[in-house]
Design goal:
Elements: H1 12-31, H2 39-46, H3 50-61, H4 65-83, H5 89-95, H6 101-112, H7 116-132, H8 136-140, E1 151-155, E2 158-166, H9 172-185, E3 191-197, E4 210-217, E5 230-233, E6 236-246, H10 249-264, E7 268-269, E8 274-280, E9 289-299
Antiparallel strand pairs: 1-6, 2-4, 2-5, 3-4, 3-8, 6-9, 7-9, 8-9
Amino acid sequence: MINWCYNKGMKKETLQKRTKIANNIMYYIYTHIETHIDLDELSHDLGVSKFHMHRIFKEAFDTNIYESIKSIRLQKASNLLLTNKYSTISNVANMCGYSSHSSFIKAFKERFEMTPKEWRSGGYKEYSGKILQQSPKAMESTADFSGMAPSIVKMPRFKSYYMRHRGYNASIKQTWQKIQAWILNNDITEYQQIALFHDNPTITPLDDCQYIACVVTGENEMITSDRLPKFEISDGVYAKFDLKGKQGDLLKFIHWVYHEWLPQSEYETTTKPSYAIYRKNNFLSEDNEFNLSFYVSIRF
């Protein structure tokens, strides 16, 4: 969730505009992570100076843009090294925006305290295990996914309203409650709730994960509020898993998908984020249980 430090005299409209700019910067980074990110071009497109753009981003996310780009690239690379067994380490580096193999090796080792080769050869298991331990609910889960098989589907592009939440934790509930209030205030009756996982929460420290709570409204819904920004969820080919469970099971499931199912399948994943479409949202249900479809971007 974005936490602003601002003066009480700041106008509501100004705060909303700054929040939108910060979200647009982060969205741009995630959707262009495999390419050269031109901050001069981005500041021009956003209609703000480069200095002001950096300041807004720092206020919103408590880190600078360059560090975020580096962190996101390494998170994506660490994931692809596990799931894309037909891609060389150089291929993975290029997919995540690194033009130099040596600079990628150096940056990866600084972040994960092992080389990409060591990570791919099994070093990720201990690293990921420690992250899973950050969630008591996931550690308590007894769910077994070994017999699950997905369906392969072509998904459309979704235009959604959203709120960004930093961290994969119980406080996500507060973000979904705000989304629900927005839905009710706008008298929306036709919608889907979607959780977008910009980061893989089994190889990214849970407090650092970018979790996006999205709502996709029906075409005939009239939205009068401008409180929530908009963005698009990517179309493409996905592996679709249908599952039910309770809090803690989903994190364990994601761990299984990326560390067991994908490496053993003949599919590779892409830099597109995975997402879940809720039929029942555990963050809003009284029994903390969910019913959802989980989508993982794949290629063959």
